[in-house]
Design a protein that fits this description.
Blueprint: E1 3-9, H1 16-25, E2 33-37, H2 46-54, E3 60-63, H3 73-87, E4 90-93, H4 102-107, H5 109-147, H6 161-175, H7 181-188, H8 192-210
Parallel strand pairs: 1-2, 1-3, 3-4
Length: 211
Amino acid sequence: MTVFGYVRVKSMDQYEDRQLDKMYARGVKERNLYIDKAGGKDSNRPEYAVLRRALQESDLVYIDTLDHLGRNYDAVIDEWRYITREIGADIIVLENEVLFDSRKFREMGEAGKLMENQFLSLLAYIAEQERKKIRQHQREGVDYEKKAGKHLGRPVEELTDEQHKIWTDVYPRWKDGQVKATEFMRLLDVKKTKFYRLVRQYEEREASAEE
């Protein structure tokens, strides 16, 4: 049996270390850790795809929260069932470890499978509702600022022509984890506070445009 860990964060997320500490505390070795840096709307998860291929029967994978398995209710259900029933591996969700340890359900046979379906449906639904609530709050914030007459242009409009070119070139690579945030700030010649304000405004504008 191999013990794996899957960590999913946004590129500027401050909680990657927290998740990693949890994995190390449960005996996950660094070579068996898979980390994706992508927002909740981003379905491109190359490290997760590698993990799926690596999993074998009787392996164990830790994840921090249930919604790290997929973008929405259906995806979470499909991934849980694929890993636990088709591959025959097990999952432990650290945020709800008492309830969500597939080994416990497996030990209970058919009754456990029924309970697993019920708990999985409930928590996946809650996770999806939380994501929707966050998006709603973001839209409300944008609408409020528009009504207040505040400027909501893309953050690159605040930059010089040279900085604009740097942003266009480096931002996608930073999101993919190819460029560190400190290096991106140095190239733009901006401080950390301004940098993350620009990122937040830019991504909110992009998310709003996709709605």
